[in-house]
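Regression report. Comparing outputs from two consecutive submissions.

Submission 1:
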Amino acid sequence: MSGTGPADRTDRAGQADQPDQRLGLRVVHRRYVPSSHAHYAGNLVDGAYSLGLFGDVATELCIRTDGDEGLFASYSDVQFRAPVRAGDVLEVVAEVVRVGSRSRTIEFSAVVVARGRPDLSGSGAELLAEPIVATTATGVVVVPPAR
């Protein structure tokens, strides 16, 4: 192989490899956080809730890239940056940042895009002018060998 980047690689016949089309693929889910998930005072939701949503969005991403649900292998650098509350609407994003032979490294974010406003009314809510990044992480999933 010559060069250092994916676009610089050549195969055995001297043909340039194409960049991996899976890199940069993004999947986005939106989810309303019901009151049944409030775990702490102030209607706070535990951090595991965001991690569960990361698993859901990773599953769709694996289906799109490899035709398989894949299996989660690990998380690294999980950051709980802001609270998630019952009544929030979360936008959960997964993006492929590295492709191995059977592994996919994915960057995740869970962002609050709307929030309940019980101070306005029992069912009051508003879209946030500035979305709030609640949770970020990097994860690795594994998929079966290519067929």
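Submission 2:
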Amino acid sequence: MDAYALPETELLLTGFLHAPAAILVLSNRHIVAANEEIERTFGWPREDLEGQSIRILYPSNVDFEKIGTRWQRWLKAQDTYEDERFMQRRNGEIIWVRARGRTLTPEEPFKLTVWTLEHLQDRAPVTAALTSKEREVARGMVNGYTSKEIGLAMGISPRTVEVHRRSVKRKLGVHKPAELAAKLLSSRPLDLHEEK
């Protein structure tokens, strides 16, 4: 079938559904439409997400409320917004995501918005320069994995993971995994310089 022969509405819908970027259309922070890439990124069938509050993709109510307040304030001043934050997959895994949004109703910023969500797989939010191994370990720590589990996934020994865990905690000034998660969840977009 010749794609150019499709009616414009069908062509636009096809483009939305099959776009290589995760896209959501929200109305008052409820998901009106989601594309197929959302399924790959978050593990939810798009039909299950449509009609739900966007809260379903956040790791905590505090994060959902805090970011919502920031969005609303920003979108009243201009029609686009961008940040990086933790979001949560269906299986409970916490991932780092770049969110870019635009309100289509500036007089009521949340009435109708369009968002792209990019999973930043090779970046973790940190306030100090972490090596790539430390970033991987930090991701595992936030997701509640043991040193043995992290080591197995990374192909390094649990002892080496422990060295990286200590370094992450020292650089970020935290002592417990819960403190690390709280610090990362409350972070603003951060500069991520990798040590060489």
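Expected: both submissions complete independently.
Actual: both completed, but the second showed a warning that disappeared on reload.
Relevant detail on submission 2: The domain at 132-185 is CATH 1.10.10.10 (Arc Repressor Mutant, subunit A).
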